[in-house]
From TrEMBL:
The keyword Magnesium does not apply. Residues 102-131 are annotated as: Disordered. The active site is at residues 248, 377, 406. This is alcohol O-acetyltransferase. GO terms for biological process: medium-chain fatty acid biosynthetic process; medium-chain fatty acid catabolic process. Its EC number is 2.3.1.84. The lineage of its organism: Eukaryota, Fungi, Dikarya, Ascomycota, Pezizomycotina. Belongs to the AB hydrolase superfamily. AB hydrolase 4 family. The keyword Transferase applies. It catalyses: an aliphatic alcohol + acetyl-CoA = an acetyl ester + CoA. It comes from the Eukaryota. It holds the Pfam family Abhydrolase_1. SUPFAM superfamilies: alpha/beta-Hydrolases (SSF53474).
């Protein structure tokens, strides 16, 4: 059996079907105690019933609700700006490290809360256009002192299009992982967060108030900064299991990264949420409807145009770009046509979308990989989800809910199902969905190291010159 559908568990009008798609010969996880279990069995067991807000009864309403202001859990960061080590993609990018809450000052922060005590000038000298709330910089000595031999799990996060470490959907997942564990003083002593997990967010170039130093922003296949960050983390913390989680465009980038790395990937497991998978399919789906064009595509296009205006001088160092045409664009696919194609040498946005899509990367994944998708997602179209490719890879499980929209899954009361606590019968242990998936996958990087999927991707990577 390569798929299993879990019907709604109650009469509740917001209850959703949940379908798990996987290989008929799935990965078997090792166990020191008890019987061995398969990856799909594990994912099914830790996935709670999906009971959403019945008043947000379709993907459009769910997705639109994200525009309603929600403070979300406060997460504090310290930032470090890295210089790219890849000469093909020169520039700088910002990585935000989750830290314990500092003592606040009386000065109000940008979000109306108290300002953080800390360094607000970049010691690297790149600087920022603005610092997100609760974000300061590492001092040089403090940053150089990072690194240890502890075995705490570490989560590396990628945000969505034009987002950043400040995004609410992202903080909902990070908060319980880094919550202070007063019963475990060792965890507090050996990490920045004060919790059971250490977490960082790799901000796409120019996002989250970061500055760019060349004409290069990022694209849907921008795996180079993530790759450098993962290698850096492995050197600083050689014994920590490293995990990845990506949202929307960040999910596409993360999927491409683990596919490119194959069996050599330094991550132990990965989770992706609302991945657009086949970018051309999702783009054409948006263009077929008024709401797709005038609401979603126009909104995303506006955000990318704002990003261009923020970094105008640097981006226009690329003489292939036309400021006049960029400022006239309205929709996301127009931005991709005017900026991404000219920057990366694609003849059309369709060619860019096909090359940057992550659906084929599924075949090359060689680590436990959990994907979460809502079938009514109006941005990451269900018709573009690689269900058949998932069935060909024993390392991958795809969980698709019948409702939830894009990065939404709002429950009655405002909570989000994708980050819902899963409580044990004793109510002693509680984790968020993604955190629990990642936790139980620690140490599961074994098994088959090549195969048809790996050979497929290696051939494609070779052809691309990767």
């Amino acid at each position: 059996m390569s798929s299993l559908t879990r019907s709604p568990s109650s009469w509740y009008p917001g209850s959703c079907n949940i379908t798990f798609t996987h290989s008929p010969h799935p990965l078997v996880l090792p166990s020191k105690t008890g019987p061995k279990r398969t990856l799909p069995e594990l994912c099914q067991d830790i996935t709670p019933p999906c009971n959403l807000n019945p008043f947000l009864f379709n993907g459009h309403l769910q997705t639109a609700w994200t525009a309603v202001k929600e403070d979300g859990p406060p997460i504090h960061y310290k930032r470090r700006v890295f210089a790219s080590e890849d000469l093909g993609f020169k520039g700088h990018f910002a990585v935000d490290f989750v830290v314990s809450p500092p003592e606040p000052t009386a000065k109000p922060a940008a979000d109306g809360g108290p300002e953080d005590t800390g360094l607000r000038e970049d010691p690297v000298g790149v600087g920022h256009t603005s610092l997100p709330p609760r974000t300061t910089y590492f001092g040089d000595k403090e940053f150089d002192a990072l690194g240890s031999n502890d075995t705490k799990p570490m989560l590396i996060t990628l945000h969505g299009l034009s987002g950043g470490s400040h995004e609410v959907y992202l903080r909902h997942v990070l908060a319980p992982l880094v919550a202070a564990q007063h019963s475990d003083s060792k965890a507090i002593e050996t990490g920045l967060s004060g919790g059971e997990w250490e977490c960082i967010v790799v901000n796409s170039r120019g996002c989250a108030g970061s500055k760019i130093t060349t004409s290069i922003l990022y694209n849907a296949r921008a795996t180079w900064d993530l790759r450098q960050t993962v290698k850096w983390c492995r050197k600083r913390w050689p014994n920590r299991p490293l995990f990845g989680i990506g949202y929307s465009l960040g999910a596409n980038i993360l999927t491409n990264y683990v596919g490119e790395e194959g069996a050599s990937c330094l991550l132990s497991a990965a989770v992706v949420v609302s991945n657009p998978w086949k970018l051309e399919v999702s783009s054409l789906a948006l263009q077929r409807t008024w709401i797709g064009m005038e609401i979603y595509s126009a909104t995303m296009g506006k955000h990318m145009r704002t990003l261009f205006q923020t970094h105008r001088d640097q981006i226009l160092e690329n003489k292939a770009l036309s400021e006049e045409r960029i400022l006239k664009m309205k929709y996301l696919h127009e931005f991709d046509r005017e900026v991404q194609c000219a920057t990366w040498g694609y003849p059309t946005e369709g060619a860019y979308y096909r090359d940057a899509s992550s659906a084929d990367s599924v075949l090359a994944i060689r680590l436990p990989f959990f994907a979460l998708h809502a079938r009514d997602d109006p941005i990451a179209a269900d018709e573009g989800v690689p269900y058949e490719e998932v069935k060909q890879n024993p390392y991958v499980v795809l969980c698709a809910t019948s409702g939830g929209g894009h990065l939404s899954w709002f429950e009655l009361g405002g909570g989000r199902w994708h980050a819902k606590p899963v409580s044990a019968a004793s109510a002693v242990v509680s984790h968020r969905l993604c955190g629990l998936v990642l936790t139980v996958m620690i140490g599961c990087r074994l098994f088959e190291r090549d195969g048809a999927g790996g050979r497929f991707w290696q051939a494609r990577a070779s052809k691309r010159g990767a």
